[in-house]
Specification:
With about 150 residues, the chain is an all-alpha fold. The protein is built from six helices and two strands; from the N terminus they run ααβαβααα. Strands 1-2 form a two-stranded antiparallel sheet.
């Protein structure tokens, strides 16, 4: 809670900068944390994608599952990914997990909600969602559970 207040105060005192490239953002809205150039570098996961792991399928005409899901035993029912893992996303995830850039939680949440709504994914099949707990040492290091 105190960290959120301090983060808000810092945004009042200092001009808003893109969390990825550190250039000044055109927007002063606190929920817009990336510049337009960095937003364009994020690759949205668009159909066709594997129904099990959500990897994008390059050859959808003859594949119903990706190569990995076809040839490996999975230990989960399915997973969804709203963005394709690239260097930009990797950096944002790293900043969120290890550099206390907790404002990214709003960006990631909105990205997932948009993905679910855009593709009409059935979330009514779930009773609840839960986080994977962090080891107490990791929790102390980071100060939060992402």
């Amino acid at each position: 809670m105190i960290q959120t207040i301090l983060q808000g105060f810092c945004e009042l005192v200092f001009p808003p900068y893109c969390l990825k490239c550190r250039t000044k953002r055109l927007s002063n809205f606190p929920h817009e944390i990336l510049c337009s150039r960095c937003l364009e570098r994020l690759e949205h996961n668009i159909p066709p994608f594997c129904p099990l792991c959500s990897r994008h399928l390059n050859h959808p005409h003859y594949l119903t599952k990706c190569h990995s899901c076809t040839h490996n035993q999975l230990h989960f029912d399915f997973a969804w990914s709203s963005l394709i893992y690239n260097d930009t996303l990797k950096d944002l995830l790293h900043q969120f997990k290890f550099n206390q850039k907790t404002l990214l939680k709003y960006f990631f949440t909105q990205t997932m909600i948009s993905f679910i709504l855009r593709h009409g994914l059935d979330i009514k099949q779930f009773d609840y969602l839960m986080t994977v707990p962090l080891h107490p040492t990791r929790y102390r290091e980071r100060g939060f559970n992402q």
